Amino acid sequence: MHAIVIDKPGGPEELRWREVPDPQLGPGDVLIDVAASAVNRADILQRRGHYAPPQGASPYPGLECSGVVAEVGADVEGFRAGDRVCALLSGGGYAERVAVPWQQVMRVPEGVGLVEAAALPEVACTVWSNVFMTARLRRGETLLVHGGASGIGTLAVQLAKAFRSRVVVTAGSAEKIARCLELGADEGINYHDGDFSEKVQADVILDIVGGPYLMRNVRALKTGGRLVVIGMQGGSRGELDLGALLTRRASVHGTTLRARPVDEKGVIVRGVVENVWPLVDAGVVRPVIHSRVPMSEAAEAHRLLESGEHVGKILLVG
């Protein structure tokens, strides 16, 4: 088979489409003929040499895929050859085939095309696990989403609105804010126009920026608020005023998804299938896709993601 190989840490030019050995199918694995994958920030970090795959994971980038089941291991439950599926991966999505534990595999929702479904696993699992499982966003509460026009942001807006919450986003342009409002966001804040914490009070904050936003996020929390940090695009260090945290009776959670054990990922995946997929089936939640790029041209897709000009997901089509 062919896969995208990272020759050495560096720029997009280090991504090469090459022939590699087929993945090994374990007894609990599903082997998928990949129709599409999608580009995530973690792939950029891996390409630069800052985010190695977990032990035992595929060395090739790609944290999600869609495709058709080619073969199943002896211990697999609920899947068989020919099923149309999408999957949450620890790596290996930028390839013609990938083997993944069956607990991380989901059937493609009704009304979503096979290629389009590649835009869903990582963002759906990220939003469900962080906004709903960890922060326990409730009906009528306000969710602040940083990077509202990102793949995670566009899904978070739709899902929170489906659960009857108020949604505020930050984004870097009027055009991106407009797209978020079209998806259902109640308010948009341009992060170039001053301190967002002076403009919004939220019950839950989903943050991809990290250190530089830490204190501003705390100031933006209501009493009993929950801050969930899932990225460090702005840096890993920030100053925290514990007095401000305590007086708000607030909490700060830091989470990752990629390195979690299979059983934990399986719980998240089941939650997505039970709670998110029915909304996708009904057309209430849809993947937002910026562009589709041939997988062999993954370098161009990385350049596009790094430019920050996209809204939603960038797909790699096999």
Structure description:
- This protein has 318 residues and is of the alpha/beta class.
- The chain folds into 2 domains: 2-120 and 262-317, Alpha-Beta Complex (Quinone Oxidoreductase, Chain A, domain 1), CATH 3.90.180.10; 124-254, 3-Layer(aba) Sandwich (Rossmann fold).
- Helix content is 26%, strand content 27%.
- It is built from 9 helices and 15 strands.
- The protein has helices at 41-48, 121-134, 151-162, 174-182, 214-219, 242-247, 262-275, 277-281, 298-307, and strands at residues 2-6, 15-19, 29-38, 64-72, 84-88, 97-101, 105-107, 142-146, 166-171, 187-190, 202-207, 221-229, 251-254, 289-294, 313-317.
- The strands form 3 sheets. Strands 3, 4, 5, 6, 7, 14 and 15 form a 7-stranded mixed sheet that branches. A 6-stranded parallel sheet has the order 10-9-8-11-12-13. The chain has a two-stranded antiparallel ribbon with strand order 1-2.
- Helix 6 (242-247) links the parallel strand 12 (221-229) and strand 13 (251-254).
- Helix 2 (121-134) crosses helix 3.
- It is globular.
- The protein starts with a strand and ends with a strand.
- The mean pLDDT is 96.
